[in-house]
Amino acid sequence: MSEWWTYSLSDFLLFSPRTYHRLFELYNEAVWPAHVAAVALAIAIAISLRRNDGRTVAAILAATWLWIAWAYHLDRYATINWTAVYFAAAFAFQSLLLLWTGVVRNALDLSSRLRIGLALVAFALVIQPTIALLLGRPWTQSEIFGLAPDPTAIATLGILVMARRPHWHLLTIPILWCIFTGLTLWTMEEPDALVSPIAATLALAVAAWKTLAPLREPRDENH
Questions:
Q1: Which of 13, 77, 121, 201 would be 158's cystine partner, CB 3.0–4.6 Å?
Q2: Domain assignment of residue 176, yes or no
Q3: Residues contacting residue 171 through CB under 8 Å, at least 6 positions apart
């Protein structure tokens, strides 16, 4: 038996890059015309952000996370990766957290309007779906907000960055997913491997800054 330190990330990859991207193509074909609904939800999020309607935004995000848990992870990704069952559970749990915090408690105040958050949301909704084309893959392999996990996680992080205070319980799963998908793409030597980890790093930095800022205020007043 080989020693554990002799393994690399590629040894744990259960599928080829071609199979992975083909999965999105088959998934997009199977769920069409859900893409129309996804675009409508993206527009609704943009309008709700402008109105600081955190409850509506949370409800939309919860619906997309639950949809991806079932339609993508359980129904599709699990066919090439057995760990997708656990990802589905995590995405479903994230949906419940969003419902509880943003809808039931109405505790998602999105009035900060931080540009980093707006940039992440804009990237997830508009730019990320075009990455497949930019990398020479067919448009049928595009990853769309509300249907695919990566743009949905990044958009969620962007929205949470715009919250008045950090919601660490809502940030944890999207950040962990961004790290995992980054490692997966890195192992496949994909040029966009750092996109999701960079988004997670930005969200983590902003959340840490918001957490530590109140602790610095009394010290500044004493000086």
A1: 121
A2: yes
A3: 157, 160, 203, 204, 207
pLDDT interval class at 9 (50, 70, 90): very low
CB 160 within 8 A of CB 102: no
pLDDT of residue 213: 74
Tokens 């057995």, residue?
82
The range of the structural domain enclosing residue 61 comes to 14-211
The C-alpha atoms of residue 106 and residue 58 are separated, in whole angstroms, by 9
Q: What does residue 117 show for φ and ψ, rounded to 5 degrees?
A: -65, -45
Structural domain total, the chain = 1
pTM over 0.85: yes
In a domain, 205, yes or no: yes
Write b or e for each residue in 148-161: b if 16 or more Cβ atoms lie within 10 A of its Cβ, otherwise e.
bbbbbbbbbbbbbb
Specify if 216 maps to a domain: no
17-42 pLDDT, tens digit per residue, is: 889 999 999 999 999 999 999 999 99
Model confidence band, residue 3 (pLDDT cutoffs 50, 70, 90) = low
Asked, for residue 1, whether it belongs to a domain, the answer is no
